[in-house]
C-alpha cells in the first residue's frame, strides 16, 4: 500500500501509514516525525529549547553510557538511535519537539559522543555488542515498551 503523501498528512493529522509490516506504535512515531517535518509553522513555534532536555550517564557493563532524555517518563517512550559516525547530538533539535507527547531517550553508543571509548582489547565494536549495550540501557531505564527510531 502506498503511504499517504505529505499534503495528506498536513491536512489530516490523523492520517497514518497502514502496512502489515509496521506496528501501530511505530506508525504513530513515524506519523509524529513526519508531521513535525511537514506541518507549516513559523520558526518561532518550532524553535527547540535545550531547557527541556536532561543529560545523564549510566554504567552499562563498566562502560560510561551517555544519554539525552526529554518528556515525561509516564508518556509513551521513543528510543532515538544515532547513525555512524555520529552521536545523540544529531537528535537534540527534535527532542524538545517530541517531549510534549513522548518520553524520548537518545543514547550515545560506546566510543561515540559523550560515552566512554573503551580500547578494542576491552570492547569489540560490533553491532551485536552495541545492541547489547543499548538493550541493557533500556532494561536499566525500565523501558519495556518503546518505539525505536533510527
From TrEMBL:
**Organism encoding this protein:** Bradyrhizobium shewense
Under InterPro entries, the record lists:
AB_hydrolase_1, AB_hydrolase_fold, Haloalkane_dehalogenase
| A Gene Ontology molecular function term of the record | epoxide hydrolase activity
Q: Which SUPFAM superfamilies match?
A: alpha/beta-Hydrolases (SSF53474)
Occurrences of domain AB hydrolase-1 (ranges): 76-148
Whether Hydrolase counts among this entry's keywords is yes
Keywords attached to this Swiss-Prot or TrEMBL record, sorted alphabetically, are: Hydrolase
Q: What is this protein called?
A: Alpha/beta hydrolase fold
Amino acid at each position: 500500500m502506498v503511504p499517504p503523501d505529505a499534503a495528506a498528512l498536513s491536512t489530516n493529522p490523523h492520517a497514518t501509514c497502514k502496512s502489515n509490516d509496521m506496528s501501530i506504535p511505530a506508525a504513530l512515531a513515524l506519523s509524529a516525525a513526519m508531521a513535525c517535518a511537514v506541518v507549516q509553522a513559523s520558526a518561532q513555534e518550532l524553535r527547540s529549547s535545550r531547557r527541556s532536555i536532561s543529560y545523564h550517564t549510566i554504567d552499562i557493563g563498566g562502560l560510561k553510557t551517555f544519554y539525552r532524555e526529554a518528556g515525561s517518563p509516564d508518556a509513551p517512550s521513543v528510543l532515538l538511535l544515532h547513525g555512524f559516525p555520529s552521536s545523540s547530538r544529531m537528535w537534540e533539535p527534535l527532542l524538545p519537539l517530541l517531549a510534549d507527547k513522548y518520553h524520548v531517550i537518545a543514547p550515545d553508543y560506546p566510543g561515540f559522543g559523550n560515552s566512554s571509548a573503551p580500547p578494542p582489547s576491552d570492547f569489540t565494536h560490533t553491532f551485536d555488542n552495541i545492541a547489547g549495550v543499548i538493550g541493557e540501557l533500556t532494561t536499566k531505564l525500565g523501558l519495556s515498551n518503546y518505539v525505536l527510531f533510527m
